[in-house]
Please model this.
Amino acid sequence: MKKRVFYTELAYVFGVIILAIGTAFMTIADFGLSMVVAPAYLLHLKVSQYLPFFTFGMAEYVFQAVLLIVMMILLRKVKLTYLFSFVTTVIYGVILDASIALLSFIPADTFAVRGILYVVGMPLSSLGVALLFRTYIPPAAYELFVKEVSAKFKLNIHKFKSVYDYTSCIISIVLSFAFFGMWHFEGIKAGTLVCALLNGVLISVFTKIFDKIWFFEDYLKNRRVKL
Model:
């Protein structure tokens, strides 16, 4: 089977859109969000009690800005790439809020419908992340953190992604208890644990599929500055 070219710029566009839509599906399903976005979702739930305009997308801006700062401290450097990552976060957040608004019209009041939304949303999220790992354009802070830190310390990116997911899951549980009381779970449910176990695996599977059918190439070959 002859491989086809897939431009990394398209990988960026599709990756951001697919990731946001996948997250929106899981939000509406309410079986538990991806452990990666759960902390931002919890922040949204808490702050929106006092500031109703504070959306899930806005919470992503705030949380990922903090993550970028932590990453720069770990790497001990600041690059334009890292700052541009925040732009990606804003784009992702806007698409996320728009997707949630559109999907909110789906009557997700039965277990079956919610199950379908979850089963569609989780692999979509993994697919979006796998695409973002293949572009030179800075992804959102979550993916950039995994990509840069694993490269810096020479770690297997897929294994490190799984460790990062597990850590995010623990942080989410702590935040849920701190915000809403002990043993009160918000955004952290059975589906979150499923994500913790399968997200890294699914990203690896999608990556292998990509390698079989495409080779990734930059369309803007003559750009002067590589982000």
Observations:
- The two ends are 32 Å apart (CA to CA).
- Helices lie at 8-29, 38-47, 56-75, 80-103, 111-132, 141-152, 157-180, 190-213.
